[in-house]
Amino acid sequence: MNAILRFIDNMIPYMVLSMPLYLIARIIIVKKKGAKINWFHEAGSFIFAVFLVGLASQTVIPKLEFGNVRFNIVTNGIHKTNLIPFNVFRETYIEVMHGNINALLINFLGNILMFAPIGFFLSLLWDMKARKATLIGFSISLFIEITQLFLPRGTDVDDLILNTAGTLLGFLIYKLLSKVLGKVISKFRYQK
To answer: Taking the CB of residue 127, how many other CB atoms lie within 10 A of it?
Structure first.
């Protein structure tokens, strides 16, 4: 659990810094278009954009360390590449059997749950079908994994598989909620 809290703690500064930038950009865009504002859609888009910045901070943005008087970019780290599909199942099982529950939380469930908001928000905000939302989630994950080849982070085909599954899970959560809260959900749709 501490590992998850550490990830969230690392995401927060990036997310907070992105908020005013997003709001300024969005105000400029809305004023130029002169379109009617759907506040539900705007709020959902804001949350989604801030989430994507948090995701990027943990995957492709170079890690920053903050000290008492300065900060620096972390350039050292172990780069590990896994191109064997479903290797994560074996590795996670071995780690859990040795008492490392973080392997299950971070490597397995973390990769799924981290991408669930993508499938959810794409469907909520733009009424996407499962195939399109999942393809976008796959593409985002593929971009992250390719970018990580050049960073001191790991590149793993299993991350691609689990992230894509997470996007599909997010879509399924959206579908379930739309059956229960259909009228509320429809308020978030982008209106042309």
So the answer is: 16
